[in-house]
Amino acid sequence: MAKKYVYFFGGGNAEGNAKMKEKLGGKGANLAEMSGLGIPVPPGFTLSTEVCTHVMNTKGKYPNGLKTDVKTALSKVEKLMTLKYGDPTNPLLVSVRSGARVSMPGMMETVLNLGLSEKTIPGLIAKSGNERFVYDAYRRLITMYSDVVMEKSAGIEPKEGMGIRNQLEKELEKMKKTKGVKNDTELNGNDLKKLVTTYKKIIKKVLKTDFPEDPFQQLWGAIAAVFHSWNGKRAVTYRRIENISDEWGTAVNVQAMVFGNMGKNSATGVAFTRDPATGENKFYGEFLVNAQGEDVVAGTRTPQAINESSKTLASKHLPSLEKLMPKRYKQLEKIQKRIEMHYKDMQDLEFTIQDGKLYMLQTRVGKRNGIAAVRMAVEMCREGLIKEDVALMRVKPEQIDELLHPMLDPKAQKKAKILARGLPAGPGGGIGQIVFTADDAETWAKKGKPVILVRNETSPEDVHGMRVAQAILTAKGGMTSHAALVARGWGKCCIVGCGALNINVNKRTLMVNGKTLKEGDSISLNGTIGVVYEGKIPLLPADPEKNVYYKALMKFADKHRRLGIRTNADNPKDSKQARRFGAEGIGLTRTEHMFFGPDRISAMREMILADDEAGRKKALQKLLPFQRKDFIGIFKAMDGLPVTIRTLDPPLHEFLPNDADSQKEMAVQLGVPVQKIKAKVQSLHETNPMLGHRGCRLGVTYPEITAMQAQAIIEAACRVAKQGVKVFPEIMIPLIGTVEELENQKDVVIETAKMVMKRVGIKVKYLVGTMIEIPRAALTADQVAEAAEFFSYGTNDLTQMTFGYSRDDAGVFLPEYVDKKILPADPFQTLDQTGVGQLVAMGIKKGRSKRKNLKVGICGEHGGDPNSIDFCHRVNMDYVSCSPFRVPIARLAAAQAAIRNKK
Ligand code: PEP
Ligand code: MG
């Protein structure tokens, strides 16, 4: 049997269903599903993603028989609609839309109203009795077609602002000005007819070809352009950001047009079954009377609320659909309930009312920000719609980050000058310097400047700039505009529909309420309430503990996860913060961080400069009280929980100044000749410091350093134990490659600890373990485990040494490696499970073969990366350790790993 490429839906039937997203794309699969459920959907058909891959692999050829299959499906649509495509008296119009496996909002193309031509216009006018409507549809077709098919798909790259769409829209503005009207709807049929003639002339002049009047040329032109848009710049950029495979391809949906712009009894809108900004269980949406879908999304007109509870500052004074068309609203409300019950998730719906008849054009899982995702998951679970494990899988671990996001300092905010108000499209605070184009945003951000991208409205072409911006601000657009949708998906601070902004992109200025701001001026945004402030307002850390839904979700997570979650912290403040976020101990205290304070660094330097052991010991005695004090603070903050403390790790030269001025200053401070310092710096110079005199190698050559640290740890532990604090120190030796290195250091620790405990007369239990961060340690983990009471994987160094990539220098080439697909991801961010992972898994197995209950954790950056956490779960680690702000993310990721890998 010939391969099936075209799937029909309509009239209560469908050849596909919601499970066929890979073939039909999200949109096609859901249209089929809705049609199968008997929900009113205009009939149509889907060209599968396999057509797209075929086109890509054959440089633009279609599979055999596709044209016949399209014809057959089209005739079924014609039958249901009792219309005919291209027929002069009874014309059917169709839309052609993209639809990938996962939604890529606005990243690919759409062409509406295909089949309209000078030949079919009279028929449609006769049928609809509405000349204005027909010419309005025609001018939209011409605009879209010339932009999408004749310009973009043809590979023409116009100068900024000179795109064909822009040029045509300028004519529309001109026409409105001449007629003295504000809205498109106020132009009559004659105006639009004239406009169409002008449009065609401009197209001929700019693009050097005529707008095609043959309906089938239009149809196939649009289909080809939509397939082509899969490889368009913005779609590719979006896929990189969202980690979507280039291989998937898009489906193409051809569907009978229904019109929301047929007059006062027609409308079109988008709605969410729950509020996508807050997660509240209320039907939320926007619509426009006498308009086509693109008008709602483009934000050129202020959308009206579908019901009273969706009203915003901007739509407050406009009547809702509930009031305007109560019967249709009721029907819509019923359908949305049914769809949510069916999909058991918040849906994003598109609908059109054509002359009083309601049609559903799309349903898909609605994008939501982190705050809303958490609330919906928890509430749907409480409503019995989904189970706890499904609720946990609904929230992306990264989305939790948004709940931990900083907010503008409310006190400073009160005093700040309000510049303007808009719609709160993305929560949290954002401060930065104004830029007006996405490219500028990228350039400035590369230089390390925090930017706020200010646009009239964003388009999918702006995604690269939106990505790097601290926040996004637009003058136009509603809560479902492109900017809002994208920002919501990323959890980025965003304000849209800020009508008071008067932007001049060419001059790079912004006029707002009588004030002119220039590129580079600072502003602050509160995306939670939609207010723009002048200048920089300080940001405050978030307090997720006040969010009851977050707390409930974390409770679910703790119930489902097996992995313990610890934190990497070097001081009491971070330790407390991490504990508030749910850390169950410290997995890594980098003691070297404690030596940099102004009160400590000179003792440290004195130690380094000392000529002999006696001199070093003298200087170390000065450091001892500082270390002890730090450990006391950390132990108290972590009362009842284990604390892993690592002995000194970095090469000593990191503690000495390199420039002449600082060296002079140091000489004065320590009372030594500057020459001595220079000579020391020179003697400590290493060609490969990461592979040089660092880690346990320092402790082996200068055991007095390890001894001082062990003394500080045990003295601190004894002291707090005496005060009733439950203390569990775990002393960790870094960078060992052989068991002998560990044994050497372990002896120093044990001897010191014995001495201290004897002296103070208190005993505390402690462990001595090691980091596994050198490949040889992993390979000989069975031997290492004979001496180590625990392992902690230092996957930063382990990645460095397994790949042979310097962690400090790899930034130069790694992005290109990822771009060229030599690596799937930066291995310093996401653990390379194939290579480095093998060493990790092998080390655990070997280690536990000698010490059955060997405790194993990870403290490299990967301990906070959800993908890597999944791996840690699978190789049976006991815990992951990450920075305090990633602790909640890790809790959720660990629960998801447990659910995902359930046998
Ligand atoms: C590691 O190497 O993974 C580690 C945690 O140690 P550091 O980053 O301090 O070298
Ligand atoms: Mg390391």
Keywords:
34 strands; binds phosphoenolpyruvate; eight-stranded mixed β-sheet; eight-stranded parallel β-barrel; binds magnesium ion; alpha/beta; 903 residues; single chain; elongated
Give the SSE layout.
Blueprint: E1 6-10, E2 13-14, H1 21-37, E3 44-47, H2 49-57, H3 66-81, E4 84-85, E5 91-92, E6 94-100, E7 110-114, H4 121-128, H5 131-152, H6 164-179, H7 189-207, H8 215-229, H9 233-242, E8 250-256, E9 267-272, E10 284-289, H10 293-298, E11 304-305, H11 321-324, H12 326-343, E12 347-354, E13 357-365, H13 370-382, H14 388-394, H15 397-403, E14 407-408, H16 410-415, E15 418-421, E16 423-426, E17 429-435, H17 438-446, E18 451-455, H18 463-468, E19 471-474, H19 482-490, E20 493-496, E21 501-504, E22 509-512, E23 515-518, E24 522-526, E25 531-534, E26 539-540, H20 548-560, E27 564-568, H21 572-580, E28 586-590, H22 601-609, H23 613-637, E29 642-646, H24 660-670, H25 674-684, H26 696-701, H27 703-722, E30 728-733, H28 739-760, E31 767-772, H29 775-779, H30 781-787, E32 790-793, H31 795-803, H32 814-819, H33 836-850, E33 855-858, H34 866-874, E34 879-882, H35 887-900
Parallel strand pairs: 4-5, 17-18, 18-19, 19-20, 27-28, 27-34, 28-29, 29-30, 30-31, 31-32, 32-33, 33-34
Antiparallel strand pairs: 1-2, 1-3, 3-8, 6-7, 6-8, 9-10, 9-12, 10-11, 12-13, 14-26, 15-25, 16-20, 17-24, 21-22, 22-23, 24-25
Helix pairs in contact: 4-5, 5-6, 5-7, 5-8, 6-7, 13-14, 13-15, 13-20, 14-20, 15-35, 20-35, 21-23, 22-23, 23-27, 24-25, 27-28, 28-30, 30-33, 34-35
The structure holds phosphoenolpyruvate and magnesium ion (MG).
